[in-house]
Amino acid sequence: MTGISGWVGTYDEDTAPEEIVTRMANRLSSGDHDSHYLNNMKTSSTPVGAVALVSRYDFNDIVEEDDFRATVCGKVIWQNPVLKTLAAERGDGYALIEGYKRYNSNVLKVMQGAWSMALISPKRKIALIAVDRMGVYPMCFGLSKNNTFVFSSVTGGMRDFPGFEATVSPQTIYNYLYFFVVPAPTTIFDEISKLEAAQFAHFEAGKLSTGYHWEMPYTAEKNGNIDEWADRLTEQLDHAICRTMDGADADAIGAFLSGGLDSSTVSGLMMKHNGKGKTFTIGFDDPKYDESAFARIAAKHFGTDHNEYFVVPDDATDIQGKIAEIYDEPYGNTSAVPAYYCAKMAKEQGIDLLLAGDGGDELFAGNDRYISMQTIEKYGSIPKILRKGLMEPIFAVPGMESVPVLSKARNLSRRYAISMPDRLYSYGFFFEQKPEAIFKADVAGSIDPDLPLEIMRKKYYHYDGSQMVQRMMHLDLQLTLADNDLRKVNRMCELAGIDVGYPFLDSELVDFAASVPTNILLKGGELRHFFKYALKDFLPSEVINKTKHGFGLPFTSWVSQDKRMFEQVTDNLSDFRKRGYLKDNFIDEIITACGQPGTSSAGGFSWDVAMLEIWLKKHI
After folding, report:
1. Would you say 393 and 409 are in contact if contact means Cβ atoms under 8 Å apart?
2. Which segments constitute the Asparagine synthetase domain (predicted)?
């Protein structure tokens, strides 16, 4: 991948700083697919501070001026006219230094686009690092034993700094298994932190602080004229797709196409403004997971040059090890498999820029829980005296759970008793499982089971608005989009050797989405109501009316039926057993569930644990 590495401070090793920062930057490459970027490496080093840049863009550079060294990886859209002019004339690094001198860390407030940045002043012992508003680019950081501030786009770069300790602990293992990814601000290592979307870290005078340079500007308005808002949305979408495709070869632009709202919209806009384009979809033999028929409908509707690939179990087994290798932290989302093969197919068809629809659900209220949580909240509108004095005593009577109407009301009561945002994860396996039921006794004692929920609570309450759907969307922009989906698509496209663009994450479109009144977004309790209304004359009716799906993977049925996949997964489960984290009976339960789907709710963990074991073998 591409990115930045460096430090400010001292270290205890008799090695030249240029050698150290180069070593750190080399960890940005994880294989032949991206090693060519290292040929473009740029460095600037002193004994008490250094920075290295590896970028796919020739215009990215490291600038040195008045002891400052600054660099940007990615594309910045400057909102300050003076800095915009300076960037155009001399580069983003010069604009960044000048902006820091004028505004300190507030310079980040005028930087739109997708990027990561680093600015250091070794003599002044100052460092500033940050990532873009949506978290497209990652950045890790931490303090070494000398109170040296160390940073890198990957955890491997951090670990290559002299004397930097990086420990995989029972707590970080627990965090990963809870989410099947490692959410910011944590990493798989206790000593390394990761920036959240729109976050920065500032090191000055030996002290480290963090903050946010941007927040979603959600409106407090609840109502509005849907036709006026619909016209504005279509206009914003047109501008967003054009900005995303700007500078790309018109003959080498394509789009992911699952057949859902967002990928179909992106594909249609590509054709509208590019005049041509290829679309790519993944299919499965299992009809519960396959929606290639909807992708074909959308492709025919817009006239794209459509391509399909049907993923089979051998594909997943073949790529599992490479997925673990490319990530600097364990990553358990099975949909990385179809994402990779879709990107690979596009690359083989001559595509350089692949457009993705990620972000639409989080911006325009498209996740099922937005509706289900509001339904649960309605239970709370029943007078408390009636709920507590009559309804809930009835629910507690043995046998009432078998009465359909009462059973549904009883479930609403149980969920309502769990406060937000914990309620969002109350359906998960770990929510009602204590660590000592799964982890060995000597391991469970060092785990704080509340920490994953605390990570989620901080993200949820970071936005202080009163409207619950906005809080949930804000949480999902961090936890679902930045920590999971973008990490999936970015890395799988890197592995396939193709660039990816996200029209829905265009800064102006994001600001617009935040301004849409919530009663328009979810009118009548319908997911994506506003978006569907605005695009009803653009998208095929079949796409408008279909149920939500996506690039899933029929893993649980495959692993029970395919001998090679079963053996690869269960062999890694057996190897993980030897590490002494999980109880033997729990590992046995997972292995049994691999061969007999539905026998245990723990069966879905087999891929996650296997991916963790493969990752540990390759990286630790």
Report:
1. no
2. 233-617
